[in-house]
Design brief:
This protein has a domain of 180 residues: MetI-like (MetI-like fold, Orthogonal Bundle). By secondary structure, it is mainly α. Helix content is 75%, strand content 0%.
Length: 327
């Protein structure tokens, strides 16, 4: 177990380094100058003063010099300073992370529950037309643009029926509409994959054996098929968690919420390279940790799945194998 965790930690560090390097190269290749964007229309500054600002921010060196300096800061736990706000990037991320984490957690939980309920309803119903109607909802949920869903919810549940705040809004009521907007595409993907997995699981041999023993339809579904069908959905949910940051950018913009999405939009608009790199590293770390948790949880649902951290089979000649041969 310890060796497996060390190996995954090394992989996580490699992923973070690769994400940092690629984002640095892409941002450096942009034609615009972040200092010029920061100065804007301030014509009172001379060229010498602008160059002094560039030197003060460390943006006057070559590609290699800037990369080595940024990597050295990162190794010492320093994500750099925002060019636009003149504050440490770590402080900006710490302020923006809690509201986005609350939104992402609410959207993920709600999306998984909605997707699970839709897949179970489509599997349990005996009416063919109702099943077909339910199974057409996931592709529709994936196809609908997130910003359009958010605007529609605002129009109906904020303007026509003032049940929830349209923009901003703190507390549980202000979280409802953004969470629903973020949850719908997640629910669609979960329902689509889980319904397909349940259909395949109910046609396997162990399901036929359970029915031959006289077990009821619900017992076969919840006691046998669901546990095996949920494994692909669990793996896909781990991937969805890594993509929640990109979804929060749209949702927080539509609902004018503070968070990582608003911070990302501002950073990209003003060419704030250090903030963009901090967001990329945070998203990469979230993705890596989520996949690690999925890898650790999968064998708990199905012990037949081999994992790198389980004990390997005993070599030939051991006591366990000898006793098995005698049987």
């Amino acid at each position: 177990m310890a060796r497996y965790l060390l190996g995954r930690a090394a992989q996580t560090l490699f992923v973070l380094w690769a994400a940092f390097t690629l984002s640095f190269l892409v941002l450096f290749a942009l034609p615009s100058d972040p200092v010029a964007v920061m100065v804007g229309t301030n014509v009172g500054l001379s060229e010498a003063e602008i160059d002094a600002i560039r030197v003060d921010l460390g943006l006057d060196g070559s590609l290699a010099d800037q990369y080595v300096a940024a990597l050295n800061r990162l190794l010492h736990g320093d994500l750099g300073h925002s060019v636009q706000q003149r504050r440490p990037v770590s402080a900006l991320l710490a302020e923006a992370l809690p509201p986005t984490a609350a939104l992402a957690a609410a959207g993920l939980v709600l999306g998984v529950l909605l997707g699970l309920g839709l897949a179970l309803a489509a599997t349990l119903t005996r009416r063919r037309r109702l099943r077909e109607a339910l199974l057409t909802l996931p592709p529709l949920g994936v196809a609908l643009p997130t910003f359009w869903v958010g605007l529609l919810l605002i129009q109906v549940l904020s303007f026509r029926w003032p049940l929830f705040p349209a923009v901003g809004g703190d507390g549980p009521r202000g979280l409802v509409l953004p969470a629903v907007t973020l949850a719908l595409p997640i629910a669609a993907l979960v329902a689509q994959l889980l319904a397909q997995s349940l259909g395949e699981a109910l046609t396997t041999g162990y399901a036929d054996t359970a029915r031959a023993k006289g077990l009821g339809r619900h017992t076969v579904l919840f006691g046998h098929a669901l546990r095996n069908a949920v494994l692909p959905t669990l793996a896909m949910t781990g991937v969805l968690v890594g993509g929640l940051l990109s979804g929060s950018v749209v949702v927080e913009t539509v609902f004018s919420r503070q968070g990582l999405g608003r911070l990302a939009t501002t950073a990209v608009t003003h060419q704030d390279l250090a903030v963009v790199q901090g967001l990329v590293l945070l998203a990469s770390l979230t993705f890596a940790l989520t996949n690690l948790l999925v890898d650790l949880a999968t064998p708990l649902l199905d012990p037949r799945i081999p994992t790198a951290w389980r004990h390997r089979a005993r070599p030939p000649g051991t006591k366990a194998e000898t006793s098995e041969k005698k049987r």
